[in-house]
Amino acid sequence: MNTDLVWHASVGLLPVCCFLVALIWLDSYKLVDVRWVLGVILFGGIVAVVSYFINVGILDATGIPFKSYSRYISPFAEEALKGMIIVVLLYRNRIGFLVDAAIFGFAVGAGFAVIENVYMLQILQVTDIRVWIIRGFGTAMMHGAATAILAVSYRALIRQQGRSPVVAFLPGLLVAGIVHSVYNHFFFPPVLNTIVVLVSLPVLMLIIYKQSEEAVADWLDIGFDADTELLELINSGQLSNSKVGLYLLTLKEKFRGEIVADLLCYLRLHVELSIRAKGILMMRENGFESDVGEETKAKLVEMKYLERSIGKTGKLAMKPFLQMSRKDLWQIYMLSK
Q1: pLDDT at 93 over 70
Q2: Which of 282, 273, 284 shows the shortest CA–CA distance to 227?
Q3: Which is more confidently placed, 112 or 265?
Q4: I need a surface site. Which of 21, 46, 89, 332 has the fewest CB within 10 A?
């Protein structure tokens, strides 16, 4: 293989990959599975290929000048396609906190940038190393940053009660598309554009990390206390005199007796697993690794059985007490990794 080709490819690809590794390393809770990050990078690359054919098709069909298209249309189209991966990850409860969204968003952009830079390397045949420094430290990092912004915005807005997924997606898409579009306008010399990206991106990520870690700490404090109180109530034998017990009694009119019993077991298991997940996070925060353990794995298996037993209607009936937010669903996923 040509030595210059390897050198140019390294300069064009390594910066964004190294920055992504740094993001994962800086995550003090180590919540993101590296295997999922690699998978997301792969899908980001697939999106780059898909977007290429879409862009070519639109250009051929409309006759829009390439410069206008690259400034005003392709940035929003590409960010929308990349954002679909984030939507799927949130739907599958793979993103719990803002820092997770930032890492996965940057990973999507990294995968996209890798394929784009490989393609550009083949067609440009430019030997000037400055071009590949700009593409590696500027364009590739911009792709990661734009999609990270979209992911963080979507993760923050989707939490709001009654917020439509489409409405929650649009603000992040708008900001990411504008960032992408402004970069493509080249208002400033390419070198200055690259410097702006390199200076602003770390600052943006530090702000996101700080906000996310504060949110995790608050959630652990409040959620752990609430889960502990509910588990103590269940174990005390006085559940029938509580609001939870009275609520379960009303369910006898809608469910068979054995289903009501399964609902109580499901409630207890969910609370125990919730406490276990929060305990693991607290240990990670203080630098300790904690194995899930066989007992917890057995409880996860039992929980899946109970979910089939009580069905979707039963899970909805328990929702007022389980507070099944995306964080709560995510913590069950975390234990099952």
Answers
A1: yes
A2: 273
A3: 112
A4: 21
Is 254 found in the same domain as 169? no
Q: Is 70 in the same domain as 192? A: yes
- Among 19-28, 83-92, 135-144, 148-157, which is the least confidently predicted range? 19-28
Q: Are 143 and 243 contained in the same domain?
A: no
292: number of Cβ within 10 Å: 17
State the DSSP string of 235-280. HTT-GGGSHHHHHHHHHTTTS-HHHHHHHHHHHHHHHHHHHHHHHH
Q: What is the pLDDT of residue 128?
A: 63
pLDDT digits (tens, 9 = 90+) for 195-252: 777 778 777 777 776 776 666 556 545 455 566 666 666 666 665 666 666 666 666 6
Q: DSSP 3-state assignment of 72?
A: helix
Whether residue 29 lies inside any domain: the answer is yes
Same domain, 301 and 256: yes
Q: Match 């180590």 to its residue by tokens.
A: 30
Q: Are residues 276 and 176 in the same domain?
A: no
How crowded is the C-beta side of 88, counted as CA atoms within 13 Å? Answer: 13
Angle at which helices 257-285 and 326-336 pack, to 10 degrees?
80
Helix axes 243-251, 190-235, angle to 10 degrees: 80
Question: What is the C-alpha to C-alpha distance for residues 245 and 234, in angstroms, rounded to an integer?
Answer: 9
Q: Do residues 99 and 160 make contact, with C-beta atoms less than 8 angstroms apart?
A: no
- Token pair, residue 75, equals 């940035």
Q: How many domains does the chain have?
A: 2
Nearest CA-CA partner of 98 in 218, 1, 18, 200: 218
Tokens describing residue 288? 């300790």
Q: Tens of pLDDT along 268-301?
A: 887 777 777 777 777 766 666 666 677 777 887 8
| DSSP, res 97 | S
Whether residues 207 and 263 fall in one domain: no
Domain that holds residue 30: 3-212
> What is the overall mean pLDDT for the chain?
77
116 plus 156 within the same structural domain: yes
Q: What is the CA radius of gyration of the chain?
A: 24
Tokens of 222: 């409040």
